[in-house]
Design brief:
heterodimer; A: 113 residues; mainly beta; 7-stranded mixed sheet; 4-stranded antiparallel sheet; 11 strands; 50% strand; B: 112 residues; 6-stranded mixed sheet; 5-stranded antiparallel sheet; globular
Chain lengths: 113, 112
């Protein structure tokens, strides 16, 4: 399978714990995006990488959230001191160029108890 | 900031009936994408529209981009049970050539 992959697919954690999600984009894609989707809503943009450079962070991304893409390939999204409001599906997408089609991974569904 | 509104929120049809969902942006878009998300799944790319007034067809699906590049529609002819899912439009514009702003989606259910 050469699509976008995300791990883990599901994560249940207690409030206050830290969690980290991983995204592996399509291999030749140098653009990578993180989105968050809550029930009944469309995905909301969180952040964007061009290679290893993080070019934009949404104001939705509080200081408890950090994303990295150290070698311009896979990316990680870490949430520190999780809150119940962080419960959502975290989606990763990649594209070849900035204005081109974004292909989404299967997402990581986070539940904070 | 840029907002994308989508209506209706829900649509239930009998198999064989047609279905349309509409998308409106608060700002002019450079392009618009449509995605389908099955229950429990992730958004799957359907099509991208770029040109003013563009119309594209994929089998029973017809996509339109408005002349002012602020609205779009997706029409499905003779729905089938496999069409069930949430259809999202996602616009690109407002000075960003990469960020997608999604509508809330239209959930389509089809009664066999």
């Amino acid at each position: 399978d050469t699509g976008v992959s995300q791990n883990p697919r599901h994560k249940i954690t207690k409030r206050g714990q830290n969690v980290t999600f991983r995204c592996d984009p399509i291999s030749e894609h140098n653009r990578l995006y993180w989105y968050r989707q809550t029930l009944g809503q469309g995905p909301e943009f969180l952040t964007y990488f061009q290679n290893e450079a993080q070019l934009e962070k949404s104001r939705l991304l509080s200081d408890r959230f950090s994303a990295e893409r150290p070698k311009g390939s896979f990316s990680t999204l870490e949430i520190q001191r999780t809150e119940q409001g962080d419960s959502a599906m975290y989606l990763c997408a990649s594209s070849l160029q900035a204005g081109e089609t974004q292909y989404f991974g299967p997402g990581t569904r986070l539940l904070v108890l | 900031g840029q907002q994308v509104m989508q209506i209706p929120q829900y649509q239930h049809v009998q198999e064989g009936e047609d279905f349309t969902t509409y998308c409106n942006s608060s700002t002019t878009l450079s392009n618009i994408q449509w995605y389908k998300q099955r229950p429990g799944g992730h958004p799957v790319f359907l099509i991208q529209l770029v040109k003013s007034g563009e119309v594209k067809k994929q089998k029973r699906l017809t996509f339109q981009f408005g002349e002012a590049k602020k609205n779009s529609s997706l029409h499905i002819t003779a729905t089938q049970t496999t069409d069930v899912g949430t259809y999202f439009c996602a616009g690109r514009g407002g000075g960003s050539n990469y960020k997608l702003t999604f509508g809330k989606g239209t959930l389509l259910t089809v009664n066999p």
